[in-house]
Specification:
4 helices, elongated, mainly alpha, 111 residues, Four Helix Bundle (Hemerythrin (Met), subunit A), binds zinc ion
Length: 111
């Protein structure tokens, strides 16, 4: 398995996700309660946008956690094995997303 290639891919992913988190962080600041300049509807829009940004941030943080776990585990001999059945995860699957922890059959059984 090309662990070097997977590792550099993980590092690129890590940077991308970190940049996204910084982006949504500025979008998920508390909604300003300035009644004079913001109408009722646009305030609701702003709150909706904020909720979406927060959900997005949660997703990105989960992704970052998965990437870091994979980066920690990649040096181990059992990297690339399914955590459920211990079979090897197909290399093509890992190349697509190195954070996969399930093989194809376990992943489809879970989903
Ligand atoms: Zn499996």
């Amino acid at each position: 398995m090309d662990k070097k290639g997977l590792k550099s891919k993980l590092l690129v992913l890590e940077e991308e996700v970190q940049a996204l988190i910084e982006q949504v962080e500025s979008a998920s600041k508390p909604v300003e309660l300035d009644q004079s300049s913001v109408g009722r509807l646009s305030r609701m829009d702003a709150m909706q946008n904020q909720a979406m940004a927060l959900a997005n941030k949660t997703r990105q943080n989960e992704q970052l956690h998965k990437i870091r776990t994979a980066l920690r585990n990649i040096e181990r001999d059992d990297f690339g094995r399914c955590v459920e059945c211990d079979n090897h995860i197909a290399e093509g699957r890992l190349l697509l997303d190195p954070t996969h922890i399930y093989c194809v059959s376990c992943a489809s059984a879970i989903e």
